[in-house]
Design a protein that fits this description.
This protein has ten helices and 14 strands. By secondary structure, the protein is of the alpha+beta class. A hairpin with a 3-residue loop joins strand 13 and strand 14. The protein is globular and about 55 Å long.
């Protein structure tokens, strides 16, 4: 047991709503078929003049208000995102500037879609070790500026948004992270990627095609790997979890796609115990899990004593899961 508790959450979404009907028409596709394939009816995208960091700041401000805290009471700030304003300095610097966080530790965790889970675990380690009392984990994602709109497989899935989670000291000895498992399977690295922008394909490489700077994925490959590897993760989290939800009150999964959500049905998990934001927000990369957690908390789906399972896959390919006792 890693003793901690979630003190509060917050979210922030762009005003612009982009429907699947709109995107399907642009791509010359049937909207109903796209909806069935992706599970996404609409998503939020930032406007051209939006500074996405402001959404991360707004989500954290909301979480601070919910916890009745000031920014000066925060000990550590973790920026847990798959996207970022610029390569250097890392995103935590930009976020810290936006919220007025100075003179204390701030750093970034980049594990694409499971960054928030990694960040929450890091926050819990700091709290449990007595190194911090209150740690904020903020995921701020802007997928829309890195999509290849000519590639419908990826461009129709993703949305923008931000969410924040504040982690603090436990109130009970049985409260906190019961189990955390993360596994890297590098044979899946090419299934989801942005090829350019690093030292292998630098920006000034004249032979680097423009589409290498946009997100691409082999959805079938990613799904097949998930089908093979996620059950292994689940069994390490709790024996029998890949065939039922014994003792689990709610599942907060990464909102990957309709196919990814359907994969959960193979484990005999009751649909009423699976929280989802996919249809109205799409896949918001690392922000998906904390956005879905925020929805579950604000709608009363989680109560003290509940055991909540978090699970997701990310580029790499990485599988990550966590069981938290509320």
């Amino acid at each position: 047991m890693l003793n901690m508790r979630v003190l509060s959450t917050g979210n922030a979404l762009p005003d612009r709503v982009v429907t699947t009907t709109e995107l399907a028409a642009r791509a010359g596709l049937d909207a109903q078929r796209v909806l069935e394939a992706t599970g996404v009816a609409e998503r939020r995208w930032v406007a051209p003049d939006d500074d996405p960091v402001t959404f991360g700041a707004a989500a954290l401000d909301q979480a601070l208000a919910a916890a009745n805290m000031e920014i000066t009471e925060l000990d550590v700030l973790i920026h847990a995102s798959g996207s970022f304003p610029q390569p250097i300095p890392d995103g935590s610097s930009h976020l810290a500037e936006a919220v007025g966080f100075r003179g204390r530790p701030a750093f970034s965790v980049h594990s694409t879609c499971v960054s928030a889970l990694v960040g929450i675990h890091q926050a819990a380690l700091l709290v449990a070790a007595g190194q911090a009392r209150r740690v904020a984990v903020v995921s701020c994602e802007v997928s829309s500026r890195g999509l290849n709109l000519a590639d419908p497989e990826s461009s129709l899935l993703f949305g923008d948004g931000a969410a924040a989670v504040i982690v603090g000291e436990a109130e009970r000895p049985d409260q906190g992270i019961e189990r955390y498992v993360a596994q890297m399977w590098p044979e899946g690295g090419g299934a989801t990627e942005i090829r350019a922008g690093g030292y292998r394909r630098p920006r000034l490489d004249a032979q680097c095609p423009p589409e290498d700077f946009t997100f691409r994925m082999n959805g079938r490959r990613a799904l097949m790997l998930g089908h093979k590897l996620v059950p292994r993760l689940l069994e390490e989290l709790q024996p029998g979890l890949s065939s039922g939800l014994d003792g689990i009150d709610l599942v907060i999964p990464h909102q990957a796609s309709a196919a990814g959500m359907k994969l959960l049905q193979r484990y005999n998990w009751p649909s009423e115990r699976i929280e989802s934001t996919l249809e109205r927000l799409g896949n918001v990369i690392a922000a998906s899990i904390p956005l879905t957690l925020h929805q579950a908390l604000t709608t009363g789906r989680i109560s003290a004593g509940h055991r909540v399972l978090f699970v997701g896959t990310g580029a790499g390919l990485t599988t990550t899961g966590m069981i938290v006792r509320w």
